[in-house]
Every structure is written in structure tokens, then in C-alpha cells.
Amino acid sequence: MPRSRRNGNLLDKTFSIVANILLRLLPTTSGEKEAFTYYRDGMSAQSEGNYAEALQNYYEAMRLEIDPYDRSYILYNIGLIHTSNGEHKKALEYYFRALERNPFLPQAFNNMAVICHYRGEQAIQQGDSEIAEAWFDQAAEYWKQATTLTPGNYIEAHNWLNITGRFE
User: Fold this and answer.
1) First and final CA of the chain: distance in angstroms?
2) What radius of gyration, in Å, describes the C-alpha atoms of the chain?
3) What is the pLDDT of residue 21?
């Protein structure tokens, strides 16, 4: 049974009902509807911390979804799971793939910057200031892109860019 039919949460049930109504009303193919169902089930599983189930649903949605914009959000969510699991290299790969399909995902740029900043902090702890600076410079580039796309968002990143002299 699809996850969307077994959720006990009122919010999830409401979302599922509205999504099902929209799927019936919008002119979409059966493949697009099926892809959306897997995507929705992936989001539900992800929100509950069931990452393995979420990944299965996202991979199935990727198999079915043909629209690059929609695929970008699936790839972004896969990146989120890998970030949560501490698999930063994999996460970066999925964020890059999402941005290839949709270069207007500031949240992907932000998450990439956070990973790079984290790696910079790790390099400092290991006593490698040169590597740390390279990671911080890369974080700055990603945060610049995120803040350019959504001025007024990512205030902490904007402040960090100013304080470290990396904001141009």
C-alpha cells in the first residue's frame, strides 16, 4: 500500500487529499502522476526520518519523471538525505545534479556552502589552514549565489561573507 494511503498524520492526510484532487484535475500523463506519487511518498518518509524508504521512492520518481525542473527537486531531496546521513560527497553530487537542471535553487547553493564551511572547520581542527581557506572560499562562492538568488534570505551567510571579507 502506498505510503500516502497509510499516513495517520492529519497534515499528511490533508496534503494527500489535495494532491490527489490536483492530480485528477491537472492535464498530466499517468507516468507524471505516478512519479508525483513516488515523490510525495518520498517526502513523507523523509519527514519521518525513514531515509531508506524515502530514497527508494525518490529513485523510482526519478525513473518516471521526465521534466528537468521536477527532477531537480527530487535530486535536491536525495541530496538532503545524504547530508543528513553525513555523506557529504554524495550530497554535493546530488546538489550539483539538481542545479544542472534548475540553476535557481538557492537552497541547494546554501546546503553546498554549509558542507564546504563544515569541511573548512574540520581542516582547521586538523591544523591545515590552507585547505580550510580553500573550503571557506568555496563556501563563499555558493553563499554568494544563494544570496543573489534570494536577497534577504540566508542572513547568517550574508553576515559571514561580510565579516570574513568575502562579500564582493
Assistant:
1) 52
2) 18
3) 61
